Amino acid sequence: MGYYREAIGNGRAMKDVVELIAEVAAARLRLVRAVEGLTTKQGAFKPAPERWSVQEVIEHLVLAEQAGINRMWQAADGAWRGKPVWSGDPVNRGLTIEEVVRRTWRPREVAPPWVTPHGEGPLAYWVACLKGCQPVLEALGEALRGLDLSQVIFPHVLSGPLDAGQRLEFFRFHMDRHLRQIEAIKADSGFPR
Question: Cα Rg for the chain, rounded, in angstroms?
Fold first, then answer.
């Protein structure tokens, strides 16, 4: 990772962009390892008709990360131009992403349409896309260079205003949350062996 080290804070434990992006990379690797070697049939297995398959979980993660990176890049661009893309009360300031989610999410949320999987494409395609998000995330880190991350804010559909540091934490949190879902799918008695 050839980008800079920029500290963030405002009440949270001091972490820098490099550490936050490295945590996302580690979560991504855990996910990839969990689905490596799964067949197309295993990737398409659904424990129940209303539940997602492993392939759909990975598709959702790709769509969500792409949307999140795009929005944070818009916010960074706005900050550089002196035209923030969001203004208001930063009600989540200083909170970890786990605290934000505890305060703002219901036990079972429904993904918004733009990140809802369509079930199209094989698992291997979506895993390749998931891996491909990492260099884009690292480029976002470069776009954030020199900015006060607590001032780079774009609202999350469920959690409200998240600053750039919280959004980076969210990518890690979101992958780990869905990794548990994937492990549950693989442990299901009907999962193809």
Answer: 17
CATH 1.10.600.10 fits 7-187, yes or no: no
Count of alpha carbons within 13 angstroms of residue 141, beta-carbon side: 25
pLDDT digits (tens, 9 = 90+) for 46-100: 999 999 999 999 999 999 999 999 999 999 999 999 999 999 999 999 999 999 9
Give the model's pLDDT for residue 110: 85
Residues 6+ apart with CB under 8 A from 55: 43, 44, 117, 119, 121, 122, 123, 126
Long-range pairs for 18-25: beta carbons < 8 A, 24 or more residues apart:
18/141, 20/165, 20/168, 20/169, 20/172, 21/137, 21/138, 21/141, 21/168, 23/168, 23/169, 23/172, 24/134, 24/137, 24/168, 24/171, 24/172, 24/175, 25/134
